[in-house]
Amino acid sequence: MLETVSALFVDRDRKVLLGLRAVWKRAWPGHWDAIGGRVEPGEALERALIRECREEVGLTPTRYERVLSEAERFPERNGAALHHIYVVSAWEGGPAVNLVDEHDEIRWFSLEEMAALPNLTIPDLITLVRAALEHGLRVGSEPSS
């Protein structure tokens, strides 16, 4: 089964980095989503997370926590998959740059701005970040020690 990893980068201002999925993408075209992609066969989830983030936005996660693993909610439309979502609270590199054609744009959003987006892939992304912040998530772009 296809597996994906996604990163919700949260900065010191509690803003979240999202990518606007390209209109040519099969799943969720033209929607804002976490940064990430497919796990290669035999690849560990954390290694895939780091690779995808480097490839897509030039950031290397150094502190992260998996906050959700869930089957695709719309397999009839998007195909069967297992998605793993991480909240990333520290990283190396930056500023974030859109390095691939998979996103038409990348941008930092406050949680309120995310809630106002009419084209967010799933509202749970906001809930996941809020829960992590409420449970004492330390945010910032410095590497973890």
Give an account of the 3D structure.
The chain is of the alpha+beta class and 145 residues long. The protein has a single domain, classed as Nucleoside Triphosphate Pyrophosphohydrolase (Alpha-Beta Complex). It contains 4 helices and 7 strands, in the order ββββαβαββαα. It has a 4-stranded mixed sheet with strand order 4-1-6-5, sandwiched between helices. Strands 3-2-7 form a 3-stranded antiparallel sheet. The relative contact order is 0.28.
Summarize this structure briefly.
The protein is of the alpha+beta class and 145 residues long. The chain has one domain: Nucleoside Triphosphate Pyrophosphohydrolase. It is built from four helices and seven strands.
What name goes with the CATH superfamily?
Nucleoside Triphosphate Pyrophosphohydrolase
- Number of helical runs? 4
Summarize the helix and strand pattern as letters: EEEEHEHEEHH
Tell me the structural class. Answer: alpha+beta
Biggest sheet overview: 4 strands, mixed
- Quick one: how many beta strands? 7
Q: Identify the CATH architecture.
A: Alpha-Beta Complex
Strand content: 35-45%
Distance between the termini: 35 Å
Q: What oligomeric state do the depicted chains represent?
A: single chain
| CATH topology group | Nucleoside Triphosphate Pyrophosphohydrolase
**Rg (CA only):** 14 Å
The average pLDDT score comes to 91
Write the layout of secondary structure elements.
Blueprint: E1 2-9, E2 16-21, E3 32-33, E4 35-38, H1 45-57, E5 60-71, H2 75-78, E6 81-92, E7 103-109, H3 111-116, H4 124-134
Parallel strand pairs: 1-6
Antiparallel strand pairs: 1-4, 2-3, 2-7, 5-6
